[in-house]
Amino acid sequence: MTDFLSTGTLPDEYRELALTVRDFANQVVAPVAAEHDAEHSFPYEVIAGMADMGLFGLPFPEEFGGMGGDYFALCLALEELGKVDQSVAITLEAGVSLGAMPIYRFGNDKQRAEWLPLLASGRALGAFGLTEPGAGSDAGGTRTTAVLDGDSWIINGSKQFITNSGTDITRLVTVTAVTGSTDGKKEISTIIVPTDTPGFTAEPAYNKVGWNASDTHPLSFDDVRVPAENLLGERGRGYANFLRILDEGRIAIAALSVGAAQGCVDESVRYAKDRQAFGRPIGANQAIAFKIARMEARAHMARTAYYDAAALMLSGKPFKKQAAIAKLVASEAAMDNARDATQIFGGYGFMNEYAVARHYRDSKILEIGEGTTEVQLMLIGRELGL
Length: 386
Ligand SMILES: Cc1cc2nc3c(=O)[nH]c(=O)nc-3n(C[C@H](O)[C@H](O)[C@H](O)COP(=O)(O)OP(=O)(O)OC[C@H]3O[C@@H](n4cnc5c(N)ncnc54)[C@H](O)[C@@H]3O)c2cc1C
Hints:
Elements: H1 12-39, H2 44-53, H3 71-84, H4 86-106, H5 109-121, E1 125-129, E2 145-149, E3 152-163, E4 170-182, E5 185-194, E6 200-202, E7 216-227, E8 231-232, H6 238-274, E9 276-277, E10 280-281, H7 286-314, H8 320-344, H9 355-363, H10 373-383
Parallel strand pairs: 1-4
Antiparallel strand pairs: 2-3, 3-7, 4-5, 5-8, 6-7, 9-10
The structure holds flavin-adenine dinucleotide.
The site of flavin-adenine dinucleotide has 23 residues, from helix 4, strand 1, strand 3 and helix 10.
């Protein structure tokens, strides 16, 4: 069986973490993945297990209840979880990278002390509300407003497709909102909204094509009043802040995508050795073996792309282009491998309870969320001066 971790290229602490998460994924996540997918139910018991392992605190310092690891450690965990269940992996990705990370990066001492230990413990989830009905790729088109009234912000508007925003353990959503204008240009800021604030509503969950066990809702804000001190980071820096968060998030989504791509390889290798047709295993046909070889190459190349982007990020160097490249090639690798794995499984590949069928449905959103394929191409083009 293909096993990148056994090549010994990772330092011991990363390798041990990845192997621990791999065991958890195989023993705890995989057995219930098909059931939660079929029932569209949020896997609270699995998420609690991940919380016990400290996964939600991986990249945060111990003083905030974190594990004292880094963003690459988070990526390795996402890769392992993404192999067996993308819904569980995206719950971790959004919880850490979109829910807690903005508070860690841009929060003041009070906000960090109030929220980070809770979010890092995994006992509570945070969400990030950027997308709106009229503002997706063009996220600067946000229409949600926040008006300062004495010592409160009054927020009105709506968000859509927001991950982790309506679970029983969701405690906050950080939203982008227009807080004024400067020289005719919109001033966008980020504000923390605790989910028990009157006027905040997580509308009924979407009926999605995939990621069925992940939690996604439209949100509405109807005269939501929060203290002025809930402003996250500087007023007017909301746009710059979320660009930073999305740049990082793309590396995490790439890691999750590599997991999906590799999961499809592993399933296909097993099946190709086992399934007999015309008196021999289907893998004895070069047409099948070559298909799997190409899938393995895609997963490997995408992995090197996200390792590279993560290494740049952790060394404090510019990483925007590499993060976009990693997200682009890894999401495409996941979708391509899911399509090929489904073909290798024949009719069984079209049955929802099979992992490859789930990857087939789940992988499409990897080419859309946290910046579509076209947005990644725009970013890469811009970095090339085009
Ligand atoms: C399951 C799920 C979870 C999500 N979670 C979150 C979340 O937690 N928080 C959040 O804020 N958002 C979330 N999103 C939203 C997601 O990030 C957006 O859907 C995505 O950014 C695309 O925006 P859009 O859907 O408005 O598409 P649009 O921006 O309307 O794009 C439509 C199409 O046009 C293309 N396009 C747009 N502009 C250009 C251009 N200039 N050149 C070429 N092509 C272009 C796009 O690539 C796409 O193919 C989630 C979405 C889903 C489905």
